[in-house]
Amino acid sequence: MNMAEEREELTWELFGSASRELARAVADDGFEPDLILSIARGGLFLAGSLGYALAVKNLYVMNVEFYDGVGSTLDMPVMLPPVPSVVDFSEKKVLIADDVADTGRTIELVHTFIKDQVDDVRTAVIYEKSQSVIKCDYVWRRTDRWINFPWSCEDPVVQRAGQVLDA
């Protein structure tokens, strides 16, 4: 089996359907987030799409570094500055958005960071893998394959030191 067959392929068109279905699941559940907390970078796309679909204008971003290669991670996920102040989330209903819960440790870090400050916190991902330490509230698909996302499957236009490529 070659690498392409071992991977899950998410196209831009399929992402549109996935994000809309996730928004419908959140709405059908009766959850009305005050804000959406995106885990950058992959979660930015989902957070923006959910923001429009759920009529939520208040979007926050947390930068977390965990992957340093395909299937290769740091020992622990690390929040990168600027880190939002937890007071920004005080008494709010927060929806954490990311592209994938792979090990789940990134989402777990963000969830733990805000959970004691908020009224309610839930998680939404496009994909969740079986080994994820956190089980997300809203999941479009479950897979254990490596995922080719449309925003990261092509080589970057520029090269930078320390870049993580999906290829």
Q: Features of this protein?
A:
two-stranded parallel sheet
Task: Report on the architecture of this protein.
It contains three helices and eight strands. With 167 residues, the chain is α/β, with parallel strands linked by helices. Helix 1 (12-28) crosses helix 2. The longest helix is centred in the N-terminal third of the chain and has 17 residues, at 12-28.
Low-confidence stretches: none
Order of helices and strands: EHEHEEEHEEE
Biggest beta sheet summary: 6 strands, mixed
What is the number of strand segments? 8
Mean pLDDT, nearest integer? Answer: 88
Strand order of the largest sheet: 4-3-2-5-6-7
Output the number of helix runs: 3
- Residue fraction in strands: 25-35%
Secondary-structure blueprint:
Elements: E1 7-9, H1 12-28, E2 35-40, H2 42-53, E3 59-69, E4 72-80, E5 93-101, H3 105-114, E6 120-128, E7 138-142, E8 146-148
Parallel strand pairs: 1-8, 2-3, 2-5, 5-6, 6-7
Antiparallel strand pairs: 3-4
Helix pairs in contact: 1-2
Task: Provide a brief overview of the structure.
By secondary structure, this protein is α/β, with parallel strands linked by helices. It has helices spanning 12-28, 42-53, 105-114, and strands spanning 7-9, 35-40, 59-69, 72-80, 93-101, 120-128, 138-142, 146-148.
